[in-house]
Amino acid sequence: YVSSAVQRRERLASLFFAASLLGLLGEIIYLGRPWDPQEATAHPTIPSTWSPIPFTQRIKARIDDYIKYFRDPAFEKLLPDPITDPAFQRPYTLVLSLEDLLVHTEWDQKHGWRMAKRPGLDYFLGYLFQYYELVVFTDLPMQTAMPMVQKINEYPGYIMHALFRDSCAYEGGKYVKDLTYLNRDLSKTIMIDTNPPAWSRQPSNAVKLPPWKGDPRDKTLIALLPFLEYVAAMSISDVRPMIESYGDKDLPSEFARREAIARAKFMAEIEEEKKKSKNSIGGFFGSALGTTRSAEGEKWIFDRMREQGQKAYEETQRSLMESKEEIMKEQAEQERQMQEGMR
User: Fold this and answer.
1) Which parts of the chain span the membrane according to its record (predicted)?
2) Numbered ranges of CATH 3.40.50.1000 in the chain
3) Low pLDDT (below 70) residues in the chain
4) I need a labelling partner for 340 at 20 to 30 A (CA). Which of 13, 91, 138, 206 fits?
């Protein structure tokens, strides 16, 4: 004997099972439906016929597109095409992480959330602005990171672009910053980051640093300037072999060591030339005629490079101060338009 309650449950179970099968069949048919015009453009090799092979190919393609929506960056080109005007063009792109590189955030019960800018950040951005297109790339959501970017990018605004979590790839439960989506020449692109998954696809472009935890005596950003200035001033054709040559060593320290060796060799050569010049007839007449090596010629190339860079930086700062009011009005208008667009 089977009670009426059991019979009712069995009928409901059968109905639920049948409805599930119908729903699954309907979903399969929906996924395999013919392309709409936009899909047909994206998948030109798969026809819209109902024959079995194209039908299953459309199902697979739509499932792959759905997965890619969450796995890949939001756009195929994350940055607009490079500026071609020589007055504004920067030959190199510098991709900077945000959290624990440029800033450090922490929370406590007394003060809540607080953000600290890394020592030397303003000078770091202002000085490199003459050489690099500066891009902040963070795996934080836009609504979290945008106020932080705006805080460090107040007047005059050296950061040209900001990218957020939706611009990252998602792989193995980690957010990856895939530089191939940047729409930039990777031979002229440097990434500075503190998170290993971030650079996992292009380690040869990455200057790898430990996270900054808020130490106010930190000098890492300033220590990085000589290397970054050298790359730009010497017009390095491909930054990747140069970065790879440092391996796992601390790049600012290793670059300073190599520079010290090269400087010592250069100064030794200058002293040797002076000794030979004094002991030669040509050196005697050259000294008498004032044609010996100039003081400028005796300067180490890095010193001349930095003097020129510092001079250009100071001239830019003077120019910015003269047009501060106009620039701030433009920034306020851009922020207003951005806020209206987000509503």
Assistant:
1) 12-32
2) 92-248
3) 1-2, 278-297, 338-339, 341-343
4) 138
Pair of tokens at residue 247: 């391996």
Q: What is the mean pLDDT of the chain?
A: 88
The answer to whether residues 125 and 308 touch, using CB atoms and an 8 Å cutoff, is no
Tell me the pairing of strands 103-108 and 112-117: antiparallel
Tell which CATH classification among 3.40.50.720, 3.90.45.10, 3.40.50.1000, 3.40.50.1110 matches the domain 92-248.
3.40.50.1000
Q: What is the pLDDT of residues 195-220, one digit of tens each?
A: 999 999 999 999 999 999 999 999 99
- Report the C-alpha gap between 178 and 168 in whole angstroms: 7
| pLDDT digits 0-9 by tens, 43-83 | 999 999 999 998 999 999 888 888 777 788 989 999 999 98
Cis peptide before 47 (omega within 30 of 0): no
Sign of CA dihedral 277, 279, 284, 287: positive
**pLDDT for position 195:** 95
- At 106, phi and psi to the nearest 5? -150, 160
